[in-house]
């Protein structure tokens, strides 16, 4: 098996609430965990703070949950609004700032359905995410106001200390020990996105085994020089 095929078989672990690094986002995570029928949460914050992770993790923990992304939003929202999907317990809509005008109208209708059904047997939870606060969201006005109808939380990037702890924890789970200079280099020169960092650690582990060398800063730089284009493609697949 080629090195490229080996790397392609090592995706990031699936997002769960347990493997989300909470940092300063404890209140938001608690709200996501306990968002039940008839409740709504809007999460906003910078890219890489974990919005998609939390939405996908919550959907993965619930039967009859629907995860909606801009790439499939129009068709999924249409099916929900037309009762083609029977009584979902949770609808999670990610990256609403990337929805087009027509799909924004569908999400507006979904909010109205969520509120109208809140006290009925068909009540469902609604979790929505975007890059901006409700007040600053560049979308149609009637939808913008609905983003603040229930709970709103801003997700914060992890501190360097939290990210270092997360990297070391991930390494220990794989039986690795990261040298302090490797962790420091990653914190100062690499992405803040924890899912990409964890993917990197997973792939670096296999690369070090192939080369029969310990994970040192020279090995990390060599790996990135050869494999970063492949890792970047994995993140967008």
TrEMBL record:
Gene3D superfamilies in UniProt: 1.10.8.60, P-loop containing nucleotide triphosphate hydrolases
Domain of life of the organism encoding this protein: Bacteria
Chain ranges of the Hda lid domain: 160-224
Pfam families, per database record: Hda_lid (PF22688)
SUPFAM superfamilies documented for this protein: P-loop containing nucleoside triphosphate hydrolases
Protein name from the UniProt record: DnaA regulatory inactivator Hda
Annotated gene: hda
């Amino acid at each position: 098996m080629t090195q490229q095929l080996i790397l392609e078989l090592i995706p990031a672990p699936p997002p769960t609430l347990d493997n989300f690094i909470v940092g300063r986002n404890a209140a938001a995570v608690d709200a996501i965990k306990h968002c039940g029928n008839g409740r709504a949460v809007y999460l906003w914050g910078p890219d890489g703070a974990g919005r998609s992770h939390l939405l996908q993790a919550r959907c993965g923990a619930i039967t009859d949950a629907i995860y909606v992304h801009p790439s499939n939003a129009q068709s999924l929202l249409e099916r929900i609004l037309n009762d083609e999907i029977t009584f979902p317990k949770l609808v999670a809509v990610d990256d609403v700032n990337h929805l087009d005008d027509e799909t924004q109208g569908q999400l507006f209708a979904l909010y109205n359905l969520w509120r109208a059904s809140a006290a009925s047997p068909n009540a469902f939870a609604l979790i929505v995410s975007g890059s901006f606060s409700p007040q600053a969201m560049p979308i149609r006005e009637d939808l913008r106001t609905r983003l603040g109808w229930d709970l709103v939380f801003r997700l914060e990037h992890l501190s360097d200390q939290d990210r270092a702890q997360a990297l070391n924890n991930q390494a220990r789970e794989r039986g690795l020990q990261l040298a302090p200079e490797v962790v420091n280099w990653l914190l100062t020169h690499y992405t803040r996105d924890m899912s990409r960092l964890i993917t990197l650690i997973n792939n670096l582990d296999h690369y070090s085994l192939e080369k029969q060398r310990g994970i040192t800063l020279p090995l990390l730089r060599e790996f990135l020089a050869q494999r970063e284009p492949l890792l970047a493609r994995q993140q967008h697949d």
